[in-house]
Amino acid sequence: MATDSPASPTPSSPTPAFPTPALKPSTIAVTAGRPARTPDAPLNTPITMAATYVAGGEVEYGRYGNPTWTALEDALGALEGGRCLTFASGLAAVATVLDLVGADGKVVVPRHAYTGTIMQLGDLEARGRLRTELVDVTDTDAVVAACDGAALVWLESPTNPALEVADIATITAAAHEAGAYVVVDNTFATPLLQRPLEHGVDLVVHSATKYLAGHSDVQMGAIVTRDDELHGVLKGRRDLVGAIPGPFEAWLTLRGLRTLHLRVERAQANAEELARRLAEHPALSEVRYPGFGGIVSIVLAQGEVAADLLSRKTRLWIHATSLGGVESSLERRRRWKAEAATIPDGLVRLSVGIEDVDDLWDDLRSALDGCVG
Ligand SMILES: *Cc1c(COP(=O)(O)O)cnc(C)c1O
Questions:
Q1: Could you identify the atom of ligand 1 that is nearest to the CA of residue 159?
Q2: Is the pLDDT assigned to residue 16 strictly greater than 90?
Q3: Ligand 1 geometric centre to CA of 38 (Å)
Q4: What pLDDT is stored for residue 22 in this prediction?
Q5: pTM listed for this prediction
Q6: Annotated catalytic residue: which of 83, 111, 195, 210?
Q7: 210 carries an active-site annotation
Q8: 128 in the Ramachandran plot: left (φ > 0), alpha (ψ -120 to 50) or beta?
Q9: Does the beta carbon of 120 sit less than 6 angstroms from any atom of ligand 1?
Q10: How confident is the model at residue 70 (pLDDT cuts 50, 70, 90)?
Q11: Where in the chain is the domain with CATH 3.40.640.10?
């Protein structure tokens, strides 16, 4: 594999100053990706709006690099413990990883992975580009068995919205023995709760649209790799295909990242408390919470109709798709035709925000009270 990007005249940006092993994640979130401390330098990396650069330098053209992307990539790379590339969206990052799979290669994927990921794989399979094998990601033996002959093992943990958790280390060891790459979609856990590269995983994918940016106002994606060669190959794909982020989006995401630890801590504390209180509510047949993160999935005992009613009745909780913002939102996932048929009709995914937990509970409880029997 080539280490240089095929389109760019020079290799990709040099290894960032981070990670510094002594620093804790919250310190990295605040300090990484800032300009050098020279007199009168701004504290924050500015938004560089540039389609081209004066010739003779490292970057040359807007599609090959941007200092605002680099600042964000340094920070997110340091948090995950690898080298980061940012993309126009989470799905652009997913597409770039799937592009690594050779003709007719086999991809192992959780049956409850994010619908967009499943749809991309379905599309590629329908066009004869690759083959997929769907697995129950909680059945480690079945996933390990499926690794045989695979080119890529896709993991998402916890899954969206079933909240299943994979045994990342065991599956990664088996996948590597079979000669497959392993990727983890780390969107739900964020690098504060789970750092897959430390378990030997080759690639981490993010929808930065969710927790990393964190304010429901920007769409972005990222890939983090441990290996410089893989980084170079993916950079080459980004250079060629052009699924690049906007500089303003990169700036917003880096600004969001500065408070990631505070937002994740608060969302998780709220989610834990709500999961405990929800477990007692008679309108629900099931409460799923994996024990970490800010997403709780609930199943309405009265199914689809009750779930739709709940979505209309809340006043604080916003009925909307997506997740990971400061504001709490909820959604019945099966309202999307693409959602897996094995997800219960009455499942509502709660994206718990950082508001006061009692206010969130009061709103949710009174809406749920109207959904009993
Ligand atoms: C939203 C999401 C994606 C896709 O990201 P976009 O930014 O919407 O393209 C991928 N994976 C997971 C787990 C997601 O929740």
A1: 13
A2: no
A3: 38
A4: 81
A5: 0.94
A6: 210
A7: yes
A8: left
A9: no
A10: very high
A11: 25-258
The model's pLDDT over 338-360, given as tens digits with 9 standing for 90+, comes to: 999 999 999 999 999 999 999 99
The DSSP code sequence of 136-185 is -TT-HHHHHHHTTT-SEEEEESS-TTT-----HHHHHHHHHHTT-EEEEE
Q: What is the pLDDT of residue 253?
A: 98
User: What architecture is the 25-258 domain classified under in CATH?
Assistant: 3-Layer(aba) Sandwich (3.40)
Q: What is the mean pLDDT of residues 145-170?
A: 97
Q: Tell me the CA–centroid distance for residue 186 and ligand 1, in Å.
A: 10
pLDDT digits (tens, 9 = 90+) for 91-124: 999 999 999 999 999 999 999 999 999 999 999 9
Take atom 12 of ligand 1 and give the residue whose Cα is closest: 114
Cβ atoms of 29 and 79 closer than 8 Å: yes
Place of tokens 């940012």: 86
User: How much of the chain is in helix, strand and coil states, percent to nearest 5?
Assistant: 35, 15, 45
pLDDT, residue 18, reads 54
Active site residue 63: yes
CA distance 307 to 367: 10
Determine which residue's CA is closest to atom 6 belonging to ligand 1.
Answer: 90
What is the number of other CB atoms lying within 10 angstroms of the CB of residue 280? 9
Confidence of residue 169 (pLDDT cuts 50, 70, 90): very high
CATH of 261-369, one of 3.90.1010.10, 3.90.1150.10, 3.90.79.10, 3.40.50.2300: 3.90.1150.10
CATH 3.90.1150.10 in the chain: give the residue spans.
261-369
- Is ligand 1 within 6 A of the CB of residue 190? no
User: Measured in angstroms, how far is the CA atom of residue 323 from the centroid of ligand 1?
Assistant: 9
